[in-house]
Write a structure and sequence with these properties.
Rossmann fold, nine-stranded mixed sheet, 278 residues, binds guanosine-5'-triphosphate, binds magnesium ion, 9 strands
């Protein structure tokens, strides 16, 4: 029996979920990676549309806010270990509204309980890094004008991501008595090419989102933090990237491993989860 890896892929809108899914699928099909497809995949529509755009060197559209589909990919790793990957694609607004409405739809409840691994996408480039207690001394806040009534309180992007993890943990009925081993947590810092940095992924997370970074490292036994550039460079919806069209989308994209090493095998974050299984 193949183990089932149901991945809770969590990411707000525009972080790169769909493009990663499409690039991942393409890699499984052309078999140049640590993981290979070992049977017939189902429910591929969401990703095959994205793939046909990428094959022309163009971007695909934003996923409709209400959409949710799960694609099932039977895979095998180099050691012959089989697994069934349940890979979702959905409109990222759903994640944002979990936190803002503080209400979890029943369907999401089930997904959280069933997931064996959590993969959280964070696109640092599009997060606001406003001032908070972690970037300015406390006195500077005391001196500022009192909040005007109409300026509704809105948590920082960092606080919102922590809140999201707290809600998921609560739903999964997990407690923090000991650092968590299961579900394993992988954080993918997506669109890494935009960041133009040489820092290690975990160091970058710690410097840009220090509160989130310490929340994660104090609550999980061994969280994995990697950089991901599914596309390797920006593309456009209207203009064809000739090189993409000629060489094929599978020639682009890379991950940055926790030790800073760059690999073109974008299946490694998932392979890592399979290999670690106890
Ligand atoms: N530079 C760069 N841009 C990327 C990369 N991956 C995705 N993007 C950009 O990010 C945008 C959003 O990517 P999607 O894959 O559509 O994001 P999503 O998370 O599926 O968003 P929703 O469908 O709204 O939930 C794309 O339109 C690209 O412009 C990457 O690896 N590098
Ligand atoms: Mg999408």
């Amino acid at each position: 029996m193949a183990a089932q890896h149901s991945i809770l892929l969590v990411g707000e809108s525009n972080v790169g979920k769909t493009h990663y899914g499409a690039q991942f699928l393409k890699r499984l099909v052309v078999q140049t990676c640590a993981l290979k497809m070992s049977g017939a995949a189902t429910n591929l529509e969401a990703f095959s549309t994205a793939l046909s755009c990428l094959t022309e060197g163009k971007l695909t559209d934003h996923t409709p806010a209400e959409a949710y589909v799960e694609s099932i990919w039977p895979i095998v790793d180099k050691a012959g270990k089989r697994a069934e990957l349940v890979w979702p694609d959905y409109g990222g607004e759903q994640v944002r509204s979990l936190v803002s409405q503080r209400r979890i739809p029943v369907a999401w409840h089930g997904r959280v309980l069933e997931a064996t691994d959590w993969v959280l996408f964070i696109r640092l480039h599009s997060l606001r890094s406003e001032d908070d207690l972690f970037s300015r001394p406390l006195q500077s806040f005391a001196a500022t004008e009192p909040l005007r009534e109409e300026s509704a309180y809105e948590p920082s992007d960092q606080a919102r991501l922590i809140e999201l993890l707290q809600m998921l943990l609560y739903l999964a009925q997990l407690h923090f008595d000991h650092p968590l081993h299961k579900p394993r947590l992988t954080i993918l810092l997506s669109c890494w090419d935009e960041l133009e940095t040489k820092e290690l992924p975990a160091e970058l997370l710690a410097s840009q989102l220090p509160m989130l970074s310490s929340f994660v490292s104090s609550n999980w036994a061994s969280p994995t933090i990697m950089g991901l550039s599914a596309l390797e460079r920006p593309l456009s919806k209207t203009d064809t990237d000739q090189e993409y069209a000629i060489r094929g989308p599978e020639e682009f994209g890379y991950v940055v491993l926790p030790n800073g090493e760059r690999s073109t095998d974008i299946t490694l974050p998932i392979q890592h989860l399979m290999a670690d299984e106890t």
